[in-house]
Amino acid sequence: MDSNSSLEKLSNKDPFQSVSTFSLKHRLIRVVWNIVWIIFASWTPKFMRPWRIVLLKVFGAKIGKNVDVRGSARVWYPSNLIMKDHSIIAESVICYNMNIITLHERTVVSQRVHLCAGDHDIRKAQLPLITKPIEIGPDAWVAAEAFVGPGSIVAEGCVVGARAVVFKKLEPWSIYAGNPAVRISSRQIK
Q: Residue 83 pLDDT more than 60?
């Protein structure tokens, strides 16, 4: 296929005529969720952590013990969030969980990280949604402003450096940095 025929396909596409990927019920739950979070949680100080956790659980999140989600964080769909014991989602994190996002024990997701479990198939004119789960292993740390893409696995003990971009499975107990993220060393706990 030459570039002219590809361009014709895209130019003939009507962006306002697409079928929704999610059911009406799903979309309504997200609307109610966003209203509830904005009114009852987004402004809350750190010590109101238990209240935010209750709201997430009411909307279907699976939450372990001593978990924290800061008020300025944004969780797209709580039912697709699993947080195991002692994990944290810090300030202004975007948890775009169109598919399951799992944070294992003692995981830290730092400020302004973007966890994105969805993408679009750019090879098709309608740009259909593709979702893949994300898993952040035990004792891992995703540092400030990193991006973790669909299908990524941040293995046990990994550190993803600030502003790194991850689109793959990372090796356990390793440190990654850059765009795309590359392994720069092993992580040894003393």
A: yes
* Mean pLDDT computed over every residue of the chain: 92
Cis peptide before 78 (omega within 30 of 0): no
Q: Flag whether 76 is in a domain.
A: yes
Average pLDDT over residues 34-63: 97
pLDDT above 60: residue 13? no
Is 77 within the bounds of a domain?
yes
Number of separate domains in the chain? 1
3-state SS string for 9-50: HHHCCCCCCCCCCCCHHHHHHHHHHHHHHHHHCCCCCHHHHH
Residue 108 lies in a domain: yes
For 121-136, how does the pLDDT look when each residue is reduced to its tens digit (9 = 90+)?
999 988 899 999 999 9
Residue-range definition of the domain harbouring residue 40: 21-186
- The band of 163, judged by pLDDT with boundaries at 50, 70 and 90, is very high
Query: In this structure, is residue 5 part of a structural domain?
Result: no
Quote the pTM value: 0.89
